[in-house]
Fold this sequence. Notes:
Residues 200-407 form the DUF58 domain. InterPro entries: DUF58, vWFA_dom_sf. This is DUF58 domain-containing protein. Residues 88-108 are annotated as: Disordered. This protein is 37% helix and 27% strand. The protein is of the alpha/beta class. The strands form 6 sheets. Strands 18-17-14-19-20-21 form a 6-stranded mixed β-sheet. A hairpin with a 2-residue loop joins β15 and β16. α4 (172-183) runs parallel beside α6 (255-272) and α9 (343-353) packs parallel to α12. The chain is elongated and about 115 Å long. It starts with a strand and ends with a helix. The relative contact order is 0.10. Mean pLDDT is 82; it is low at 97-103 and 185-194.
Amino acid sequence: xxxxxxxxxxxxxxxxxxxxxxxxxxxxxxxxxxxxxxxxxxxxxxxxxxxxxxxxxxxxxxxxxxxxxxxxxxxxxxxxxxxxxxxxxxxxxxxxxxxxxxxxxxxxxxxxxxxxxxxxxxxxxxxxxxxxxxxxxxxxxxxxxxxxxxxxxxxxxxxxxxxxxxxxxxxxxxxxxxxxxxxxxxxxxxxxxxxxxxxxxxxxxxxxxxxxxxxxxxxxxxxxxxxxxxxxxxxxxxxxxxxxxxxxxxxxxxxxxxxxxxxxxxxxxxxxxxxxxxxxxxxxxxxxxxxxxxxxxxxxxxxxxxxxxxxxxxxxxxxxxxxxxxxxxxxxxxxxxxxxxxxxxxxxxxxxxxxxxxxxxxxxxxxxxxxxxxxxxxxxxxxxxxxxxxxxxxxxxxxxxxxxxxxxxxxxxxxxxxxxxxxxxxxxxxxxxxxxxx
Length: 438
């Protein structure tokens, strides 16, 4: 039996005759009346198990996107079901109650006549990546008086894959335009050295004299230069560090979230450039991997692989990571390490093994910088702030020293705030490609 708020009101109404006739018999009579009313209402309520419940749900949605979870209720009994339905989902998938979307509640009132069906919709707004698993569906059917009814919890499986948001997509058009310039597909022709010969054209002021083709110049009796385009079909390996350092919060998110955004932007850009993109999420073991040679499928493959990746509270096994990289790359490639520039973590692990990567590959380390560190360095109004500024300054100097040691070993270091890391890394990729270093 399930009681409603109306049953409480009926019981409270009995306080009036009890107060007027304070006798034990009056109390017993009124209690008996309440019990009989509730029992009759329960007997007349339809069974909640006579509702056949099925779920319809899209397979995936992007983070902070909106998706509708639809429940279909089919009444296979002989009575009309006056039901209150609760579709249970994790709190991270439901909109806040004080938000404009707060009316999208997982509770629904619905009447289903015998032999008919109704649909109820729960709007989900996920705030975390990964798999959101629906809990059971609770159905409470009420009697005609609405004071009591029956309740049952039904298993209606549902799983929603929450993909990364890819907010850095807004930087993609400008980087693709620069890529077209490098490839010579736009009106601007890249001048100077490149990596693959493209064509010959007449010399103009500003051209690099090293690009002059003297044989063609002698034949045509005018100065002719070679034009170049970046090489295609290079291998780009994106390594996302999922160790404990990736769990650190920077502003409103974690380091891992910023790394995911940077990996998606660079992966899509490299795929448009004709390079082969592969992803590896690693700490002490492989957490996820993705590889697709078709440019149109690179983004879905990367998003699917990164959807369920979460930080692990362990130290990165850098020798193991280098072994994973070597086993996947048979020729020179671009290896992008999306990790932390934390001095302790780098000095105790990465510095000892990074030379084995830079001897064969072009290595880029991309790290998230904390903007609050710069605020601490510049704020010195009180004694406490002076001490905080000194600690922040020391931390900054240690990170700069580690970055210098990495550059001495041939590593390109990119450090930027969470919002700027993805475009900065994309710019570094374009610069390396233009310089013929891939």
